[in-house]
Inverse folding.
């Protein structure tokens, strides 16, 4: 389908080459084709993750400042897939380390265009607080990951445009420009490398509100679950503007443990462990 | 002299022991019952089921507190020390089985204070057995429960007694023995509480700072109910989330957590304040609306049983400017108003009866989780002011440091805090987590 479209575009552009007036419309068609191709790639990436049901991940976040000083965070995350393109997934993150925030929990109901619903549980005072989710671009736990980098990656949160295909390590990748459609993103665009064999996001370049390269995320140690779902066990985020780095290492990701919708509510937040 | 070497007064020790035994026995009994029934159920199930693992965990914190009082003590009997060091130990034990669906939590608390033997105290903050099931959960034992949304007053929060020797903000609570059944529905959650034993409020002793001119005699508290602290108290709460709105409705029947005071002479003929605990009915509502950077918060109560029926409410807003400080720090501005319609002669005194709070919160979102919260509460009529500044920061993976500065200004004899007008202080706390 897309190949056919491509060849049409190709011939169109040849025609355009011969006549000056048709040039701009051909460029437009070119652009439309790239958008269609980029969107198709993202759709394939999204489709391959359908039906994962629920996951429970165990992870360690290694923060490093520009002087090389390191600090460690440990957390667990339960994610529940909410079917459909117009709603996001639900997730619950529980912090184990550093010890002074042990038991702090964060519940998020992702939305596509509206702000997410978020609650924070503070174990010392046993208080559940509804918090504003406007700070999508804010750092998560002082790391180089922003809330928007870690919240559910939903197809409709971005528009897509294919840029080129190129080798990425041993694989061949499609390079796609993604523009956030939601408000309050800290990014004007992201450039994402999807490998063409399994449609995994291998690398993402994030561009800040001024259009300057801000961060690069490199994902590696991909493992396949249930013969279908790929997850990176190592995510390395480097901030080019500050020199700070954060590595997110997963020790275990379990699928389809039977997580129920009723386990991810504001009121069950205060009994999490 | 001898009392310096005795950690706790005998009465307190007996009460503490009683509390430990009562909550411990109930929690243990319930968990054994559940374990037995669970093991029976398991025995009946097929052997291919994975054996349920028992998981346990031990953690907690130890802190060094230093309070600095620049002014000399005002009341007779107070130790005139400007420096008040103390040590806090708060370990936590957790055992869970059935994949966490059954668990026992134990969180004792101990403070050793060099000067005030009322502040030198221990408590069972938590000792509970909890069972989590599909759509419901059950808790038996001592626990802490928080209700409410506002920042500068916790009006609807009524389950736990305030641990009044810990801090002046009333946010430290004593463990409350309870049976709590929670039922989760798509239309909201219901929580039912039965509380068989009442905890008396703690107050600083004769030698301590931050006390009333007459010390409170906590050994001779009086009650409206003949059952005294064994009067069974009940509470019911419904809470739900409706889009951007978080709503809670509750009713409490039982022993008022706030005491009134009666002046009586003690054994030596010295006048003392005797706490008197009424039986009250209190209905409450708490609401928060979350609209982007705006949080709108409101709490209201209607109480019967202390003089004329009265209402009280707290309401306000919090607005956050995200990412405007340094790399990614947030600045939040808070404003709240407090009204309390109680008859201050027949009901326990309320400091915040017609008061405005304004404050600012700075969250740096850095690796050290640095936070600041500064605020002032102004009485609308007398213009008396209470300032507070809090700051905290992580030092490394095991240590944190916190500081609190509390200053009052312009207090008149009408104010309840008039007696603590010379107790402005700075508190620094260094905590180690294990």
């Amino acid at each position: 389908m897309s190949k056919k479209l491509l060849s049409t575009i190709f011939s169109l552009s040849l025609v355009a080459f011969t006549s000056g007036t048709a040039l701009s419309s051909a460029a437009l068609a070119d652009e439309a084709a790239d958008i269609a191709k980029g969107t198709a790639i993202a759709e394939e990436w999204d489709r391959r993750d359908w039906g994962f049901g629920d996951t429970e991940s165990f992870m360690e976040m290694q923060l490093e400042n520009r002087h090389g000083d390191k600090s460690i965070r440990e957390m667990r995350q339960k994610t529940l897939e909410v079917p459909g393109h117009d709603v996001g997934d639900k997730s619950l993150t529980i912090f184990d380390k550093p010890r002074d925030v042990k038991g702090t929990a964060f519940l998020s109901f992702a939305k596509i265009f509206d702000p997410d619903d978020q609650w924070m549980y503070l174990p010392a005072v046993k208080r559940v607080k509804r918090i504003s989710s406007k700070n999508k671009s804010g750092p998560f736990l002082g790391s180089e990951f922003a809330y928007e980098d870690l919240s559910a990656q939903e197809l409709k949160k971005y528009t897509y445009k294919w840029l080129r295909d190129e080798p990425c390590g041993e694989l061949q990748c499609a390079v796609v420009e993604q523009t956030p459609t939601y408000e309050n993103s800290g990014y004007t665009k992201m450039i994402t490398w999807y490998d063409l064999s399994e449609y995994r996001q291998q690398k993402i370049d994030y561009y800040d509100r001024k259009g300057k390269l801000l961060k690069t995320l490199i994902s590696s140690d991909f493992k396949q679950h249930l013969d279908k779902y790929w997850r990176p066990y190592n995510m390395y985020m480097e901030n080019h503007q500050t020199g700070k780095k954060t590595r997110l290492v997963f020790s275990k990701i379990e699928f389809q443990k039977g997580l129920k919708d009723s386990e991810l509510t504001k009121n069950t937040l205060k009994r999490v462990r | 002299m001898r009392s310096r070497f005795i950690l706790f007064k005998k009465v307190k020790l007996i009460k503490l022991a009683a509390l430990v035994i009562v909550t411990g026995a109930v929690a243990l009994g319930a968990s054994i019952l559940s374990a037995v029934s669970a093991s029976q159920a398991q025995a009946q199930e097929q052997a291919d089921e994975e054996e349920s693992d028992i998981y346990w965990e031990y953690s907690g914190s130890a802190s060094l507190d230093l309070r600095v009082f620049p002014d000399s003590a005002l009341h007779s009997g107070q130790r005139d020390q400007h420096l008040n060091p103390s040590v806090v130990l708060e370990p936590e034990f957790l055992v869970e089985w059935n994949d966490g669906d059954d668990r026992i939590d134990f969180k004792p608390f101990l403070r050793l204070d060099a000067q005030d033997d009322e502040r030198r105290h221990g408590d069972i903050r938590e000792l509970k057995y909890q069972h989590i099931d599909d759509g419901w959960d059950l808790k038996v034992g001592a626990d802490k429960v928080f209700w409410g949304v506002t920042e500068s007053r916790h009006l609807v929060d009524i389950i736990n007694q305030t641990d009044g020797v810990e801090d002046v903000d009333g946010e430290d609570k004593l463990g409350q023995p309870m049976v709590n059944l929670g039922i989760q529905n798509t239309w909201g959650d219901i929580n039912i509480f039965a509380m068989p034993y009442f905890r008396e409020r703690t107050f600083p002793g004769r030698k301590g700072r931050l006390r009333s001119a007459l010390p409170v005699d906590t050994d001779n508290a009086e009650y409206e109910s003949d059952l005294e602290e064994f009067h069974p108290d009940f509470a019911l709460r419904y809470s739900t989330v409706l889009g951007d709105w978080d709503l809670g409705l509750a009713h409490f029947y039982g022993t008022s957590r706030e005491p009134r005071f009666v002046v009586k002479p003690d054994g030596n003929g010295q006048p003392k304040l005797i706490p008197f605990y009424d039986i009250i009915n209190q209905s409450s509502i708490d609401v928060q609306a979350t609209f982007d950077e705006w949080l709108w918060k409101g709490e209201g109560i209607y109480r019967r049983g202390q003089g004329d029926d009265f209402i009280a409410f707290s309401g306000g807003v919090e607005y956050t400017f995200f990412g405007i400080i340094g790399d990614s720090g947030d600045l939040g501005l808070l404003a709240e108003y407090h009204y309390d319609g109680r008859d201050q002669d027949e009901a326990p005194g309320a400091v915040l009866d017609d008061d405005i709070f304004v404050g600012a919160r700075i969250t740096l979102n850095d690796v050290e989780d640095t936070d600041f919260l500064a605020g002032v509460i102004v009485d609308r009529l007398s213009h008396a002011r209470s300032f507070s500044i809090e700051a905290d920061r992580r030092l490394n993976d095991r240590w944190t440091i916190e500081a609190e500065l509390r200053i009052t200004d312009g207090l008149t004899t009408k104010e309840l805090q008039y007696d603590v007008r010379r107790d402005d202080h700075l508190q620094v706390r260094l905590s180690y987590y294990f």
Observations:
- The longest helix of chain B spans residues 10-44.
- Helices of chain B lie at 10-44.
- The first strand of chain B starts at residue 55 and ends at 68.
- Chain B is about 10% helix and 50% strand.
